[in-house]
What does this fold into?
Amino acid sequence: KQWYQRRVAITAGEDFEGINPSEKAPSGNNELNIVNAPVNMKGHWEDYYLEIIGLIGVFVYALNFYTGKSINNRLANAWFEHHKKLLSDAFCIVGDDGVSKEISEDVLVKESENRFVLWCTGRVGCEGIKIEIKLLRRQDLISVLSQIFKPQSDTITITTYLAPEDMDHVVLAIMPRKGLKRLQQEVQDLAHFATEKKTDKFDLPSQLGILAEFSEVSNEFLSIPVCKTIAENIDVFDSIHFSDYYTGFKISQESQTETERPSPVKRLIFNFVIPGHGKRTKSTIMETTEPLLRMALHMMIKVHKFKLSKEKKEKRLRLCVDTTA
It folds into this structure.
C-alpha cells in the first residue's frame, strides 16, 4: 500500500511539473460569454443534389408504373372486346374465371400487371382453350429501358386442350427457320417424331420452316387458305405446334426418373405477335390477330376430323413403343 501511494504521488508530481501551487490565478472576470450568432438558413442546392436525384428517380419510377399498368390494361381489354363476338360464336362459355362455383363469363383474368388469361369452353372437338395475353413489362422502368436496346413484342398464345378421342396421330410445327433446329433439339415430340419438310409446294413465306412426322399431315393442314392467311399476316404470325404426344421440353436422363416423366397430352399451340415491337400502343393494334384467330378455330375443326392412314398409324405405334422403352 505504501508503494502504491508513493507511485501515485510521483505520477502526480510529473503531471504538474513546472507549476507553482502558490501562484494565484489572474484576476478578472472568468465567466463564459455566450454570443447569440444568427443561424444561416439559406442552403445551396448543390448540397442536396443526391436527395434531389433520389426524389426524381422515385417520381419517375412511380409515374412509369402507373402509366405502363394503364396501357397494358387498356390493350388487354381492347383485344378481348374486339374478339369477344368471334369467341362467343365458337364457344358456349367465354371468360370463365375457374374459381367461382357458378359459371362466370366475360372475365379476363389478370395474373400480373402484364399477363392476362382468358378461358373458353363448350365446343365440339376440344375440351377448351386458354388464351394468354403476354404484354411487355411496361410498368417496370428497367424493362422499359432494356426495350430500347433489345426490342421485344407483345404476344398472344392460344393453347387448345384436347381429349384422347379428339385428335389422331399428328405432329406438326410451323415456325421461323432461324429457331427451327434449336427447337427440334429441345422439344421432346419434335425431336423424336418430326423431320424438316420442304416448303416448295406450299405458298408460305421463305422465312418459315416446317417440321412434320408425315407428309400426309402437312399436306392436310397446310391448305391454300391457311397458307394465304399466314402469308398475309406474316408480321403477326409466330408459330404453330400440333402434337398428340406433347410432353414439353426435354429433360436430361440423369435428373429424370420414371415417375417424374410427364405423361403425353394432346395440344394445339398457336403463337402470335403484336406488330410494332411495343412502340404502337393504340388499342386498334390488338385487332391485327383476328384473321389468325379465325384460322386457329378453323384448324381445330380440321384436327378433330383428320384421320391418319392405316399404314402411317402402324408406323407411329412402333415409334411410340421405342419412346416408352
